[in-house]
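Entry:
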Amino acid sequence: MADDEPSYIDYEAFLDPSFSTTSFANSLVLATNNPSDTPLDLSTPLSRVLFDVQEIDTHIDTLTTKSALPLLEYTKDHAESGERILQEVEAQVASLTEGYKTLEKEVIERYEAAEQLEAQLAEIGGYGAGSGKREDHRAMVRSSNTLVSLRQVLLASRPGEEGEGLERVNVIATLKGDILGPAERNLISRSQQIIREFSMSSLLASNGTSQQPSAASTYAQTEDTKSRTTSALLTLYLLSPALRNATTATFEPALLISALQDYLQTSLKSQGSAASARQ
């Protein structure tokens, strides 16, 4: 066939999205046969299809030969672009993974620690008052240690430090405002109360206003008072604010010192009042 025949290799028809192979085969058979022919001649349309396929293959080969260099460059550019995109995506995935690990370490784990702190406070009795259960004063020390650990992370907010950027996380602000702050105030208040009660019990004993229990009961109460007071003193020591560069030698536990000073002043005043009353 000549190249100028209208029906010869209609590439636009083949490339049309609506092109149907079934319709094309049917029209080709009808074009090479009469409707009354029996049987139909299929060899002629098949030969035409094979000839057209060979012509298309030759045309593709000619185009690729003439445009080999542009095609290779195009393929190379696409491969390099794909590689760059893959590297960029992998870098973004790595960044997201690292960010999640940081989030998990600095937020999720800290929030779990805060939940543990809340449970410890419930053991103390400050949050579970009225439950009828005896308070666990040793939980005050455990809670204080948890608070100190969280405080150290939150204060380490300089570039490169463990808590850098945490202040921008909403859950951290909620953690500090709703759990850590109230928990610390509750622990300090409870510890100061225990020390004051220790002082009052001593005054009552010295004035002889308390009943005389059995020896075993007195010993148990004394040991419990000593243990509870020790926990309160340790709690005030741990929760006393410290400067960033403070060392063990330079650290001054202000809360503990203040509580002891108040205790001594109260004891001295009480002893003075008792001495005056006996004169």
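The first helix runs from residue 11 to 15.
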